[in-house]
């Protein structure tokens, strides 16, 4: 653990009121309307099973773009004096002030999935995430393996500026730019809406008949992208890669619509995030960063234990 995080944890422990040593751990995610975040819920639930000291609540706004609603959920958790918070911030800047307020209130916070801005350093105890940059590069390498080093590749992204998107899409694009002559179309932003991604992909496919590859960078975006590929009769005619691992995306891998989908350890984010908060409350040290991993799931490995452990 870094010196700055050790100091922050020590300062938080001094602030912890006796009432917060047990009680509710509030898990607040980007939206509840996603299988990915529901898998986080399953992991968080698993973390509190078999003990009676802490309970867990799970909440999130109706959509990932409803940032103000997420801020309000964190405010409400602080106001009711929860023992700890596990937060997947939808916006790195907008959530920083309320995380600072949690720290000042003596409430430990574990950040999951997407990071906060530099101004939030020292106000939360750990960050649990896929290494999104490494994940983006892994998809880019697979894209080059599939299409070569020339042609057009479209990037179907979700919400601009979110921490996970910056790493995942940014490093995908940067890797292609540094290792190929591939021309990037986009990124286009679906706001994590499947129907929007479907329409955007339909337009991209119609406007770029010479497209050799396409990348859908999160669950609703990749599902919409896959449906558009099927509707356009493009299955097998271009390399397509998704991100996340719900049933729709698994089916797309099995039927060849997608070459592969990169799947994060969403269950692990929930389980390990809640356990990290319980550790802080108990006075135990936690690491600054906990990597929850990613698996590139293909038709060849989808039935292996490694893939089945992360799919949902």
Automatic annotation (TrEMBL):
The keyword Phosphoprotein does not apply. Residues 1-22 form the signal peptide. The lineage of its organism: Bacteria, Pseudomonadati, Pseudomonadota, Alphaproteobacteria, Rhodobacterales. Keywords: Signal. Residues 25-284 form the Periplasmic binding protein domain. It is found in: Cell envelope. This is ABC transporter substrate-binding protein. The keyword Hydrolase does not apply. Its main location: other. It holds the Pfam family Peripla_BP_4. InterPro entries: Peripla_BP_I, SBP_2_dom. It comes from the Bacteria. Belongs to the bacterial solute-binding protein 2 family.
